[in-house]
Amino acid sequence: MPAETPHLHLLAKAPLPGQAKTRLSPLLGLEGAANAHAELVRHCVANACKALPAEKITLWTALDHTHPLFIELREAFGVTLSAQPEGNLGARVRHALNSTPGPAMLMGSDCPSITSALIATCAQQLANVEVVMLPAEDGGYGFVGTQQDYPALFEGIPWGTQRVLATTQQRIEALGLRAAYPATIWDVDRPEDWQRWKGLPVSM
């Protein structure tokens, strides 16, 4: 662990049918997709809490800030709950990273391939570089950590496209920042992603 343990932030919607993981609905239905979303959030928060102390973890909520899932996770793990601010994804990610002093990291709540060991590795590597990222197979990324605020990494990024990672890496290079990419991960967006996770011999 580095001398200063980074804070870890997660962004998560409340699991409301028709508003969470709707791309899974052709396979699971709207209710099933919402339940799948809740399962992913539980899994990712549990992995985060295996890697870092709960006081170093904040779950940023959306849609219904007092949803029973969020209360359950706070009571089970002791994580802090905060409401996501308005704004696009880049603005919300940057707000979360800047909400705590010192180095900070943020991960998606739909990335079961980000294990507790991988989170610990990212925390360790962030002690030696300005940026740590876990690229995703779809051209985005599922995890980012920074030593301080770098607005250019989050402004004007084509969120939701296959250009997210490439554009961000161009910004990192332009700023002359040192970056580490410990692993490539995948997230759960499509029915085949869900089947991939459920097809694993043991959930990661």
UniProtKB/TrEMBL annotation:
Descriptive protein name: TIGR04282 family arsenosugar biosynthesis glycosyltransferase
